[in-house]
Amino acid sequence: MEIKGVALLDKKTKNLVKRLKPGQIAVIDHQDIDEVAARGLIEKKVKAVINCAQSISGKYPNIGPLLLVQNGIILIDEAPQKLFEILNEGDFLIIRDGKIYRNDEFLGEGTVLNEEKIKAKMEATKENLGETMLAFIENTLHYAQKETGLVLGQYPPPPIKTDFRGRHALIVVRGHNYQEDLKAIRIYINEVRPVLIGVDGGADALREAGYCPDIIIGDMDSVSDETLKCGAEIIVHAYPNGEAPGLKRLRDLGLNAKIYPAPGTSEDIAMLLAYEKGAELIVAVGTHSNLFDFLEKGRKGMGSTFLVRLLVGAKLVDAKGVNKLYKSRLKARYLLHLIVAALIPVLIILAVSPVTRNLFRVLLIQLKLLFGI
Question: One of this protein's GO BP terms (predicted)?
Fold first, then answer.
């Protein structure tokens, strides 16, 4: 097996995906490759992924590596960390059976993960899952106690122009199956016209689906410049002490923004914003809500999310997986029934019309003459 291509490298996969082009080789440092990262690499049609970390560490059965190899992408696992020191963006690489070369220079070696090896690693994670879950629950409860101010009004949202009163709010996060779920609720979006809130890269997801977000909220680390300039109201998620690293990027782009200092995740404060501003219903797409979601996100607990969902639960509808609830299949007999039903009134009109009756008589005479009847 030999793979050749231009290398692009970044320790943050979500940043690398923005720069990749088809046929290139992605060099990453991503422990436990998650589904969203894998799908991003697949969409870019990379030839190979060289991971300088463990693609599956054994903590939980992350599906990202399996998706990569099932889509024909070569995955090199646990390559040397020194690649980030000796490689330059745009270097031409050759991969032979896990060995990595720059022209004829040997750079290091990793393990080629195929589908069989990945499935074996995923199966082995079941032994550690109980311990991982227990630690996750303990961490969640610990931070839930520390972050009760989220639901006790200690972190009020900033004043904004967008009016939520009497409207629904749709919050979009680039999480599991977000694209399919957005497509599944397209009719709802077009008819109800909810306030559209994109959480970081979720704002790009809205634009990719043909919509313009009303609000973009987050730490601004994974949303494109083009989307930030679309005219949406921008709210930067800041640390509880008011420090907001994302503001610098916006200032460099010449954009204004409000600051929302609060603990927790950006999707948590997006829900709080919609709730506090009077939204009648909050619909969530792609949000993180369970153990595997948060482990994939690199978080060891979900204290803030637990608290926020307790508060907004009566108004919250989670659209995760809605695309799988019902997939219409047009059967041949249904189509035949539809055609027959449509033809009945046409046949009745033809039968009672004097013109068509005379036409039928002429046709009948011609048939009799033709067959000598």
Answer: thiamine diphosphate biosynthetic process
Residue 281 placed within a domain: yes
Q: Into how many domains does the chain fold?
A: 3
Q: Are residues 312 and 188 in the same domain?
A: yes
**Rg of the chain in Å (alpha carbons):** 28
Q: Does residue 86 lie within any of the structural domains?
A: yes
250 within 8 A of 221, measured Cβ to Cβ = no
When the pLDDT of each residue in the chain is averaged and rounded to a whole number, the result is: 85
Q: Please tell me the number of Cα atoms within 13 Å of 47 on its side-chain side.
A: 15
Range of the domain at 336: 332-371
Are 178 and 61 contained in the same domain? Answer: no
Whether residue 193 is predicted with pLDDT greater than 80 in this model: the reply is: yes
Distance CA 242, CA 219 (A): 12
105 Cβ partners below 8 Å, 6+ apart? none
Least confident of 57-66, 91-100, 250-259: 57-66
Burial environment of residue 166 by CB neighbours within 10 A (0 to 12, 13 to 18, 19 or more): exposed
Q: What are phi and psi of 28, to 5 degrees?
A: -130, 170
This prediction's pTM: 0.70
Determine contact, residues 20/41, Cβ cutoff 8 Å. Answer: yes
CA angle 294, 177, 56 (to 5 degrees): 50
